[in-house]
């Protein structure tokens, strides 16, 4: 919150803005908006904010200074009171704020929710302005690299199980980057901006990155070349060991801390059996300012073939690139705590929308049938006037915990009931007819094999559960 | 979008605002903000907005005219372009818009997401300005009352299984209400506003509702009294039958259609075995304009005792009231379709946040322990220097699909590992020691019973799965 003198100054300025607009007969809307701001400022000065605030506002201030050069992608909105509000840019900053506000010092959780980016959308690559992210974070004061290794294991597991083709996970450490910049002769105040430039190495050739460093960011050629040598290095635990012997890097305290942790991280990753996909890559930078230690990014190796109808000359395949990323951010929670109490955190954001778009394209290309329902059984009838019996049986199955469905028609044709199962992937049909009702049985049909068997009504639930385990 | 002359005027005014702020040496932030607005306005003038718009904007217009008198609760925002935007008020209108835009004519789905109300929050009752709703809807042209009955069955199931105490579900039909107003002598143009007044009968006495009808809404006493007779009626299928014989209502086509459907609905509810909680109640009105047929609302009967520390004289218990509601809205999708094509829909919104607040209070009152994790087993050790063995075993369990956890400490004490299980409700501990490693076993401990047994490492996964079925 601004101090009193600043507020009074702001109220004065704002009052003049309003008077000026009025004298110029500006639009009512514009005047209203500026008046609202004025009232807001006055309320801040006079009121006891804490009293009546139930809605916790994520004001723009919460987001600024956290994303470095990516800040321009934050979606701003204005609320009715004229306060500056933004849509959340990621789930990490809100998570950190949540921990600080609720004084939580230990938590492990995942969170799937929408985030917003004022970016150029690219639908085929699964890049939207509003999209879902899935975050997993571990917060708490723990021994080095154990939670960090778990985050990488999780990314590995997800990408492996989703069967999205070959992938690799690049790992680096903000401290190694900073140490590297220092020993290469980058001035302190240029670390962050040079970091952003290095981050472009996945999309740009080294020559172009170097040009940006020299021409736009004002590094000397020498310094850029020294950086160039380091950022071309890739390896595993061996590289960390080798760099700990590097005459320049080994003189830098930060770099040494980062490299020692990197060695430890790889030893844990070895135990987790994921080192085949993890690469220690000195060119990985990631643009966000809040990282303080390990950083990582998962990249799919393959391009996904575009579906036939969109397959133009230029778009033969879709390269999706990064599908997950994250790192350690030990300072972020403290930024939201009035007393600056730190809660070390490490986490990962999974771009589920991108992953979905790949899975969808894969399904389209392979003409694989995707099951769209969890329904185990459709309650059907071959004869007319059996709606009530169908509803009764459906209710019985529901009550027994079976996922059952019934067509919402009085007298549907058997064929259309079977077609519904084939279209949606329902594996079983429970067929009722006069004869079955008389005999106390239900005809259970396997949709795929078309095989039918009469099951005593009392055994139906068990039989369905057995067949749909 | 504003027209060109308006924009040019706004740019001029904004330019002056910026110049003024600069001359007054206002804060950089404030100037930047006003400059940004100026650039935005200029961009609007020059750019071709349509070209790069991929994000479908839910403009305020989408929401207006759908909520009747509740419209004042819509949370308005302003986006950067100065367009009027709002936060979504419920999930029904966005669902209808989604169907129309994607030309979907058949779907059954649930959706859990946040909605926003500019209302007075009441935390203890689970009423917030931003809160989650859970909607279930069935869209499609089907035979009468079958999907409607399924919605009621679902509400019944949810409230029953969550064990929230006694409840009842009021049911009515918009057509019965309209027919009733017509035969009572309410002028057509007052149907909606009188409907809103009737809707208050759950919070106000009839005398006060009548007063509002007469004094504020301008009905004659006679008309109000006639309404009063009807809205005091409650029953089941029998009441629907009786009203079909009512000399006045039976002359009204709409009322008859509604009553016939109500009879049918109850016959299906009978098959679903839920009639013990469902009441046909002519006083149920629900405020929203979009309903066209059946409407319903689920109400918890009991008040929940407030937790001891908050238990003041005035707040002896918390009455939560309505926890779910919905109905049929056959016209809403058509309002979003350029050709007005209708898709009949019926659905229900479950106030999960309210339900959670009741469950939390119940748990607090009963001092019941709520399990906060799904973890099946904690991998632990009693001796030092076994971190690597713990990580290895954890990874083995993860790879086998077991939900396992490990403390992120090099050498945690056995006691703190056991305490962690007790606090979070992890039922099993897999304990490793030098001896166990040598013998190729793991000591599996039941946290509750403290019983321990040595399990051969090869059998561990099966044993854990068997014990945590």
TrEMBL record, chains A, B:
Task: Cite the EC number.
Answer: 6.1.1.21
Coiled coil residues, start to end: 4-41
Q: Does the keyword Repressor apply?
A: no
Q: Name its GO BP terms in alphabetical order.
A: histidyl-tRNA aminoacylation; mitochondrial translation
Q: Its family? A: Belongs to the class-II aminoacyl-tRNA synthetase family.
Q: What is the protein's name according to its record?
A: histidine--tRNA ligase
- Which top EC class applies here? ligase
Catalytic activity from the UniProt record: tRNA(His) + L-histidine + ATP = L-histidyl-tRNA(His) + AMP + diphosphate + H(+)
- Domain WHEP-TRS spans what residues? 3-59
PANTHER family per the UniProt record, alphabetical: HISTIDINE--TRNA LIGASE (PTHR11476:SF7), HISTIDYL-TRNA SYNTHETASE (PTHR11476)
Query: Signal peptide position in this chain?
Result: none
- Output the Pfam families linked to this UniProt entry: HGTP_anticodon, tRNA-synt_His, WHEP-TRS
Going by the UniProt record, its keywords in alphabetical order are: Aminoacyl-tRNA synthetase, ATP-binding, Coiled coil, Cytoplasm, Ligase, Nucleotide-binding, Protein biosynthesis
Q: Which GO terms describe its cellular component?
A: cytosol; mitochondrion
As one GO molecular function, the record gives:
ATP binding
The Aminoacyl-transfer RNA synthetases class-II family profile domain, residue ranges: 110-359
């Amino acid at each position: 919150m601004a101090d009193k003198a600043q507020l009074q100054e702001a109220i004065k300025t704002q009052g003049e803005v309003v008077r000026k607009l009025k004298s110029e007969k500006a639009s009512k809307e514009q005047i209203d908006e500026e008046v609202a701001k004025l009232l807001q400022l006055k309320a801040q000065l006079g009121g006891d904010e804490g009293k009546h605030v139930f809605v916790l506002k994520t004001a723009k201030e919460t987001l600024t200074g956290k994303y470095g050069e990516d800040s321009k992608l934050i979606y701003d909105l204005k609320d009715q009171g004229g306060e500056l509000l933004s849509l959340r840019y990621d789930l990490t900053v809100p998570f950190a704020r949540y921990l600080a506000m609720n004084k939580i010092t230990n938590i492990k959780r995942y969170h799937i929710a929408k985030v917003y980016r004022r970016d150029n959308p690219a639908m085929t690559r699964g890049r939207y302005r509003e999209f879902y992210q899935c975050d997993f974070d571990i917060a708490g004061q723990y021994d080095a690299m154990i939670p960090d290794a778990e985050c990488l294991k999780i990314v590995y597991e997800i990408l492996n199980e989703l069967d999205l083709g070959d992938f690799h996970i690049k790992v680096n450490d903000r401290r190694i980057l900073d140490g590297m910049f220092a020993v290469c002769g980058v001035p302190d105040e240029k670390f962050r901006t040079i970091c952003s430039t290095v981050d472009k190495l996945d999309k740009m050739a080294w020559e172009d990155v170097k040009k940006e460093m020299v021409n736009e960011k004002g590094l000397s050629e020498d310094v850029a070349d020294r950086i160039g040598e380091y950022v071309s290095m890739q390896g595993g635990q061996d590289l960390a060991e080798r760099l700990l012997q590097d005459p320049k890097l080994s003189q830098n305290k930060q770099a040494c801390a980062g490299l020692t942790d990197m060695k430890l991280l790889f030893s844990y990753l070895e135990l987790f059996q994921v080192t085949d996909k993890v690469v220690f890559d000195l060119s990985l930078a990631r643009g966000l300012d809040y990282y303080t230690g390990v950083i990582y990014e998962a990249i799919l190796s393959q391009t996904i073939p575009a579906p036939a109808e969109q397959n133009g000359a230029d778009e033969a395949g879709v390269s999706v690139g990064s599908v997950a990323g994250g790192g350690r951010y030990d300072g972020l929670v403290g930024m939201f705590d009035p007393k600056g109490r730190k809660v070390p955190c490490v986490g990962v954001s999974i771009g589920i929308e991108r992953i979905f778009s790949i899975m969808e394209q894969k399904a389209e290309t392979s003409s694989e049938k995707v099951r769209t329902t969890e329904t185990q059984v459709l309650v059907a009838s071959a004869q007319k006037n059996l709606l009530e019996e169908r509803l009764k049986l459906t209710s019985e199955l529901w009550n027994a915990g079976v996922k059952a469905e019934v067509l919402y028609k009085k007298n549907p044709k058997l064929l259309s009931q079977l077609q519904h199962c084939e279209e949606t992937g329902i594996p079983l049909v429970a067929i009722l007819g006069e004869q079955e009702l008389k005999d106390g049985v239900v005809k259970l049909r396997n949709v795929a094999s078309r095989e039918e068997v009469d099951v005593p009504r009392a055994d139906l639930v068990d039989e369905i559960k057995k067949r749909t385990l």
